[in-house]
């Protein structure tokens, strides 16, 4: 077996690292808790024909896919934390991916306020990284727009 450089790359060596990126076709529902509200989006279909609903009402599939891509774009652009912070209180934003395969555990991303316009990121109960805080207002705007049928930006 050749000893190639890419075999020795570690997560923190990448310039930008996504925390969770489940295939949309593997997800049964996405739950978002933030800004004083809880949202649950039901997802059906396959990768090409995704149908999503909120409170029993169908959502525009193009907008939902854009929203989903925004959620999974949560990423770290800095070094790993030297030590895990003591997180307490309620997260600013929690995203739960519930899978169609019942044997697969939910994936949960929880974001907490950190110093210097950052957020501590807890992935399935483990906090090793931070991310830029401006993810929060973009998600907040997208949530409001998605549930009312308006367009929204996805760049943060």
Report on the architecture of this protein.
The strands form 2 sheets. This protein has an 8-stranded antiparallel beta sheet, covered by helices on one side. The chain has a two-stranded antiparallel sheet with strand order 1-6. It is α+β, with helices and mostly antiparallel strands and 156 residues long. 17% of the residues lie in helices and 37% in strands. β3 and β4 form a beta hairpin. α1 runs antiparallel to α2. It is built from 2 helices and 10 strands, in the order βββββαβββββα.
Descriptive keywords:
single chain; alpha+beta; 37% strand; 156 residues
- Form type: globular
Order of helices and strands: EEEEEHEEEEEH
Q: Tell me about the largest β-sheet.
A: 8 strands, antiparallel
Radius of gyration: 17 Å
Number of strands: 10
- Helix proportion of residues, in percent? 10-25%
Total helices: the number is 2
State the assembly state of the protein chains.
Answer: single chain
Distance between the termini: 41 Å
- Estimated share of beta-strand residues: 35-45%
- Structural category is alpha+beta
pLDDT < 50 stretches: none
């Amino acid at each position: 077996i050749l000893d190639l450089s890419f075999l020795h790359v570690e997560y923190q060596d990448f310039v930008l690292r996504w925390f969770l990126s489940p295939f949309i076709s593997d997800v049964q529902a996405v739950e978002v808790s933030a800004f004083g509200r809880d949202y649950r989006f039901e997802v059906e279909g396959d990768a090409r024909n995704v149908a999503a609903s909120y409170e029993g009402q169908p959502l525009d599939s193009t907008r939902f896919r854009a929203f989903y891509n925004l959620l999974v774009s949560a990423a770290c652009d800095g070094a790993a934390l030297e030590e895990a912070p003591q997180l307490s209180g309620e997260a600013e934003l929690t995203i739960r991916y519930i899978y169609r395969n019942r044997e697969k555990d939910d994936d949960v991303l929880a974001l907490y306020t950190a110093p210097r316009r950052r957020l501590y990121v807890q992935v399935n109960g483990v906090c090793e990284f931070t991310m830029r805080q401006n993810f929060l207002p973009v998600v907040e705007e997208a949530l409001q727009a998605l549930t009312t049928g308006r367009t929204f930006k996805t760049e943060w």
